[in-house]
Structures are given as C-alpha cells and as structure tokens.
Amino acid sequence: MSPRTVYRHVTHTICHAPEGGITYEAFCVTAGCGAESGAHDEQEAAQDWALRHTGRTGHDLFRRVFTDHAQVTRAE
Q1: What residues does the DUF7848 domain cover (predicted)?
Q2: How far apart are CA 43 and CA 4, in angstroms?
Q3: What is this structure's pTM?
Q4: 3-state secondary structure of 22
C-alpha cells in the first residue's frame, strides 16, 4: 500500500487584533542622519518628534511606520 496525502483547503480571514495595539514610529531619512523617534503608542508623539527634529536640524523628510497586530481565524 502506498502512502497518500490529502489536502484540505480552508478559508481564513485576517484582521487587526485590537488587544495588540498599534505603535507609531518616525525615521529621519536625510542622508547621514539616522535619527528615529522610537516606538510610541500615540501617533501624535511620533509626529511631534518629527516636528521637533525638523526644527533642530532642518531635516524635512521622514519615513513613518505604523505597526499593528493581526489575528488569523478560520472562516468556517
């Protein structure tokens, strides 16, 4: 008797998991700078950091990162 494999395709959904929260970060992308805000629970904190950084340095281009947690559940 030869072994057989049976595949079962199951539909899943993925969505934001509120209990995981969201973190906000800003990174200065001016050549040679490398400054970053660090992770914050509030978007305003990361934005305020970028505004202060611009005021101190004149750097005006940032990469913003929003991180959340996602949960996958079976759709059945």
Answers
A1: 1-75
A2: 52
A3: 0.76
A4: strand
- The answer to whether 59 and 53 are in contact (CB under 8 A) is yes
Three-state DSSP class for 75? coil
Alpha carbons 54 and 61: distance in angstroms, whole number: 9
Instruction: Give the integer Cα–Cα distance in Å for 39 and 45.
Output: 9
Q: Which residue has the tokens 């990469």?
A: 63
Rg (CA), the chain: 21
Q: Determine the pLDDT at residue 1.
A: 67
Residues across the chain: 76
Which alpha helices (DSSP H) does 1-76 contain, by range? 43-57
